[in-house]
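haha ok so turns out i had the wrong file open the whole time. this is the CORRECT one, sorry everyone. sequence first:
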Amino acid sequence: MDISYNATLGGGFDAAIERVTTALKEEGFGIISRIDMHTTFKEKIDKEIPPHTILGACNPVLAHKAVTALPEASLMLPCNVTVQQEGDSIVVRIVSPEAMMSTAGLNDNPAVKEVGEDANERLKRVAESLNN
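then structure:
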């Protein structure tokens, strides 16, 4: 089982962030956190890397179902999406909720498993839309 769904985009980094955010929104996800790794590394340890951002994506309806059924499911939230400059391309990696939940043993709860499957299908569609 793959841990992520990937897409490669052309264009600028900021445009890629906007495109990813829009694609996530179309599947019911909002961005609840953003970590600009390149800025953090420069500020904290004076190291430079190409632009690399982690977006914390959350679908509130699915998150509510999961944590209501099993509070420790919140350990898997939000769903991380990375956007990274690699040469002239932007690589997007979207976590597979099914893989994460399976690894953590949370699939034993039917309600949480159902949420993971739903989130997985939605995020897979996001990656597919970005690849088109």
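The first strand starts at residue 4 and ends at 9.
again sry for the mixup
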